[in-house]
Each structure stands twice: as structure tokens, then as C-alpha cells.
Description:
Chain A: Residues 1-69 are annotated as: Disordered. The complex is a heterodimer. Chain A is an alpha+beta fold. Helix content of chain A is 33%, strand content 15%. The longest helix of chain A is centred in the middle third of the chain and has 17 residues, at 242-258. The radius of gyration of chain A is 33 Å and the shape is elongated. Chain A starts with a helix and ends in an 11-residue tail after the last helix.
Amino acid sequence: MKNGKGSRGRQGGSDRGGIRKRGAATRVDREGDMVMEGGSAARSRGGKRARGESGRSNTSNRSQAANKAMDAIQRAISSNDSQANIRQGGRGSGLEQAIVRGWKQSKAASNPDGGLESLIAFLEKKLSPSDSKAGTRARITKVCATPELAVTDMNHQRRPLRCAFVFRDGSFRTTIGTCLGSTGSRVEGDALIVSVRPELLDRMLKLDGFSFAGAPLTVHKYDRSTDGLLDQSMLSQNGSSPSAADTKAKMTAVLGRRYAQQTKLLDLSRLASDPDLVSMGIFGSTSTESKFFPALMKVWELNFDDSAARRKAVESVSLAHNQLANITAVTTLAQTIPELKNLDLSNNEFKDAQALIGWRWKFRNLEFLDLSNTPFSSDPTFKDTMLKWYPKLRFLNNVEVRTAEELAAQKKTPIPVQPPHFRDESQIAENFVRAFFAGYDNDRSELINGVYDKSSTFTLNINTSAPKSEGTETAPWDAYIKKSRNLLKINHLPARMSRAYNGTDKIRDLWTSLPATRHPDITAHPDQWLIECYPIPGLPDPSGQSPTGVGGLLIMVHGKFDEISGSRVETRSFDRTFILGPGGGMGGIRVINDILCLRAYGGHEAWIPENQPAAPPAAAPATPLVAPQPVAVPGAVPGVVPGAPDGYGMPTPGKPDVQVQQEQLVLQMSSKTRMTLPYSEMALSGNGWNIDAALKNFEELKTQGTLPPDAFLPV
Amino acid sequence: MAPPTEDNLTKVSTDAATEFVQSFYPALENNRSSIASFYNQPTAMILFNGNAVTDGAAVQEIFVNQMSPTHYEVQSFDCQIINQGYPTPTSTGTKLPTETTLKDMSILVLVSGYVRFGESRDLPQRGFSETILLVPNPTTDLPKGRRRKEWLIQTQNFRLVV
């Protein structure tokens, strides 16, 4: 299934660990795909289950099921029953399948699970030889349920079912059971499909016509051939059976016909009346129908080389007119296209919020949602619930429910984001920051020799759960975690001491052991940095002459870096605060404190100033304008633009923001045109502070040769 | 006074930072009338997203009157001693070297976590980074009804970073 691979890696939980003890079982599971190649219908079925099981094992909330599984496994292992290989239930192990109907009309159907458990108990009892002891009686394990049983499976959390394995994928669709004694079962619509040992099949079929809780049951042998069409094996990457390729090709064609690249719309409405799908026999049985959508999503994914391209390809999906009573059958959409903006679910049968609950925390970027002509949309709580679920929702049932302003206001912080506060002294901080990160990337030892001394302190803490940018994954922290001095977690004094690095030698040893890094160039990518600085008093005086302490600089840097370990490159974000004081290092300074926090990559949007100057239109190139830290604006570096007064383009107390922003524009203008600051300012003010217009104007005048030589900076 | 041992220094500084983090962020959340009491007077600099705020009283005023309900979640923090012999001011000037104790130190605290502006749990979690310098409380006054804080904010810089 879709997320099978990912969940395999992530999961590795106790249930798998237990299984691994049995080599054969592991092989069956792991190599399910290969077994499927065998081609017989029976093997294909089993293979599919093996896949399904790993694919759906990605919820954490099923330890109960896992524990039960462990129990079942242990019992299976310790028994001398030859069929203890639990993973073989229902696959190529010679089991026969029977289909049981009629129980949905029984009194037990009003049970929370639809009567399934009662039915299973009933069948077990009937199948068990009358003289058998409890230990050898037949057991049936529920294997698979279709949407009708979603609630049953959810309830499983509280009310034990006789399941050896229940794995959920968020849609509550369960799959894979084990056949502990003799049987396994699954449910398709109103049919329970039971796998039994061949010797039990006769007994099973004799139950035809038996009365169960007031309703007659029908039992007959199950014919798999009607059920093979969409076997997952057909869609496996290396699946090479003709029908697999055929199914995939047909689905690809259907998807191609329903996808509009320009509008990024994937129209999956009215699927049941799609002639191609109908001709494929998709909707012939509940079984193929339930497998169809995940398969379709799988085919869709196979069309893309990487998840980034896949995410970008679709912004809108329509699932209108599909008679959906809940999203169970289509839930995989949320995994395949998680960053959907527009979703049309109109003209379906959703009764209430519960019918959509599987998507409660999905589609975090949803802006447009249509649930018109569904029972749910006339519910009085409908609008509030949807607004609550989807914080970016703008339109619900084609009515605006949040204005752009409301959305912006929601996003806006109560404390407006301002450009960095950067109050340097003699460019000490600027020079230090530039040299530091270049040195940290290239020669840490040299950096330590330059500005660290015997009293310098370095510590590192990892925020392993920090908010991160959407759509990014965070690499493990193994290389750092044993050095992390997160005081929330490191509570013992000896650990707190050993994780503080004092003096050049200890810092050097630590830094040498940390992964190599590459920070973005400050001049080339100013927007990726936020650097603030101001003077502070009360620092230790290494000369001991000033008992009241000496002044220094507090520097706070936020940014990102690439971590290089072997061929892998991981991007992470960091916060790093330095305290510089007078000392014997390069430039007469020393690092008193260097404290570093590493966290998942979180982008740099958070520090883009909220108050843009009014004059430059939105069309102006974003980066230079929002370049927040003056040190990084190339023109702001004195010497690059001769004649720039001290502090020009930098915020200082009392200077209005508009002036700072205009000065920064002037510096940009000047660095692009090589015009002097006064001429750059004239060009900008003459063009409404629109730098694009000013540059265009400049090019015209330059071509005409009307600019005087003194408009330009001396070469 | 015998020179302080490494373990004592570590204990005092990390206890101070822990106590601060465990009381300051809850106060920002639901005890805003106490905010001013966390600040030294005068403070060197207080910044929120690049906005300079005059002093602790002004911070309290902003939180009491202008801030929506706000939830802070500290996910990681660490501290370092800046100055083991911090010149704590007294009524007669600065403490003499003979008067200083183990607790006359200044401490650098770096906090990483998330903040949610507004009551609803569905609102986005914004990552923040905050640098705080703590100095010893120079006064021995006992604030009415409150425990005397041993450490006060000398400078603070809050930034949303995600």
C-alpha cells in the first residue's frame, strides 16, 4: 500500500519484533511481493494481505491489538500445531474459503460491531467437534472489514474482538488476521468470508440454513476468481503479470483523462459511471470497489518520480457524486495528495462530522471545501466544525467563511514582526558573524584558536519536537543527542556538568566530533538569516581590572545549515547566541558564551517583517526588500557604497521604519546601478519608491546618456 | 570564600534557569499581573520580534491589555554562566569581592519551543527562540504576597522562528 514503506521503517514495533523470532513468518511478510509473483489466485490473495498489514501498521494507537497479537504468536509458537505459522492464514496454505451471508438480518446486527463477533463465536462453536476440549476448538479470526465495519474496528480499542491483528491506517479499515486454530475471516459488505482448513469446509458448508440470532444464514464456498481483479500485487512496482500491467495502464488512462494539468485539478467525481472503470468490472463487487481507490492512488503516485513533484501536481480534487457515506474508501487521498487546497465532496451521503473524521487532521492547507448536497451540510454545527478543522479554510460550500483579512489576522502575531534589531559596535558583531560561520563550516579548530579561550563555554541543546516547515522530514538526531544539554531532559548534575564544554580543548574535541556543516552565504542569502545584536554590560573582565565588569556584545543568530554526513545532506535550523567580550583573540575579542540550539528545519518566513513599506508594489522582488538584517544587505556594508553614513539602512532608536526601509532600497539601488546614494534616492523617490520602475527608468536614462558622470560612484 | 566548585556552579546556574523557565512562561500564560516582577530594573534591553519594550512594567502592560490568551510550550532550554563574579549592585554601590556569594553570577538562558496565540488548540504552533540574561535580584525586599525571586531578567530577546 501507499505508505507501506514508510511505516515499515517507522514502525518496527514490538509486534514485528515478535514475529521476527520466527524466520519463516518474517520472510512471508517481508517478501510478500515476491510471493505474489507466483500468480495463483490463492497466493495473490495472501500476498496482498501481507502487504496490507505492513502498509496499515502505521498508527501508534494499537498497542492493545499488538499485545493480543503477541499473545497469539506466543501461543502459536508454543503449541505443537503444525500450522502455527500464523502469517499463512488464508494464503497458500491450503485453506478453503466459505462465504457467510444473512447475519446482517439477525438480531445481533444491532450490536455495536454489527453482530460480527457473535457470528464468529457462533461459527466457532458449530465448527468445533462436539467432543473437543476448549483448547482445540476452532477459532475464527477476523481478517478484513469494509467500510460498514469501520465503527467496529474503532471500538476494538475498547472492546476486544477476536482479532489477532488489527492494523489501522486512519480509515479504520482493518486487515490481516491470523488463523490460529483453523480459520480466518473477513467481511465484505454483508458477507463474512471465512477461511478454514479443508477438513472443516464440509462442516462449514453444512451450516447453510442454520439460524443465527433469529435469521437464517447462507453459507457457500467462496469463489476467489471474482475477486482477483485489483489485487494489490498487480500494482506492485515489479508486478509483471499481464493483468497487473493492464490494470495499471487502464487506470493511468483514466487518471490522465481526469487530470487537468493547467488547473491542477484531479476530477474523481462520478467514478461509478465512468465507462472505463465499469468495463474493468471495478464496481461489480464490494470487494473490488473497496480496493479500487487505494489502487488508483497508487497508480497516481507511480506517475511521479518524487513526492515533491507529486505534491505540486494537484491543488484541487473532486470526489463529488460518489455516493460516499464516509471517507473510508477514499481516505488514501490524504496520504497521496496531502497539500490539497480545494476539495469538492459535494453530492455525497456524509451524515455528520464522524463520516469525515479520518480527515480531521489532514489537508492542513485546505482553502476551499464543498460539501453541498450532503446531509452533513444542513447540520447546525457544520460550519463551525469545518472552520475549526481547517484553519486555512476560506470557502465552504461556495460561500466565503473567512476573508483574506481574517486569515491574515489569524496568522499575524499580536507582536508584529519587525526587522532585526542590530546595534553593532565598530562592526565587531558583523565581522564576527561572517567569520564565525565560514570558519565553523571550514575549519573549526582554527576558529577556536582565533576567538575562544580557556574560559569560553559552549553547550548544545536539541529541540527534537520543534515546529517545522510543512512537507519536510527531520533526520534523526543521533549524532548530537548524547551531547544535548536540554535541561528539560538532562536532570542529573553530573550529566549537566559533562555536557558543558569549557575551554578550547574541550570545545575542540566536541566540535570535531559533530557532523560537518554548510551554512548559506550571508551576503548571497540574507533572507535566510536573522541576526540581532546589542551591547550588554556586566561581563567578566579577563584582566581583572574592572570589578564592575566590562561591556560586550550579545549576538543572536537564527538560520539554517546543511549537515553533511557521507553522501547525505540534511537541512536543519538553529538558534545560536554568543556573548563577546574584550579579550586576547583576533580583533581583541573573545567568545565568553556560545550556546546552540538545533531543531527541525523551520524555514525563514517567520522573520519576514510584517510592515512592508507602502510605496514599493508587491511586484518588487521580495528578497532584497525583506532582507531583514542590515549586515546582510550588500550595500549596507560600509565601503561597498562609499559615502554611506554610519548606520545608514539600519534601524536605530528613533529612526522611523519607513526611513529604514527607504534607506535599504537606496542601498540596493546603488549597489545595482553603481549610482551614488543621492542619485539612487532621486531615482527611487521619482518612481514612487518602486525599485523596479526606478531601475527601468535608470536603464532608459543610461541608454540615452543623460546621466552625469557624478551620478556614479567613483570606480 | 573558597573558590566555588564546578558542581556548585552548575547546580546554581541550572537550578536558576529551570526555576525561571518553569515560572516565567506560565506567568505569561495565566499570571500576567506578575510579569513585571520577573524583570530587573533597569533592564539592558527587551525585544519582542524586534520591537523594543521599555521595561518589565511595559511588558506586563502589553500582556495584560493587548495579548490574546497565549499558550507557551518550552521544548528545550539550556543555560551557561556568563560572569561568576557578577557585580550585583547594592545600596552603597557594588558588592565588594568579600561580600559576593556563589549566587552572584549572571546566567545566559536559551529557550526553544512553540507558542500558540489564541485559545483554540487548532491555531498554529509558532516556533520561538528566546535569549534571556538573568542577574541576581539586587533587592532584599519581599514583594507583597509573593516569593522573592532570586533571579531577574536583565535582557530578553524573543523571536518567532517558525
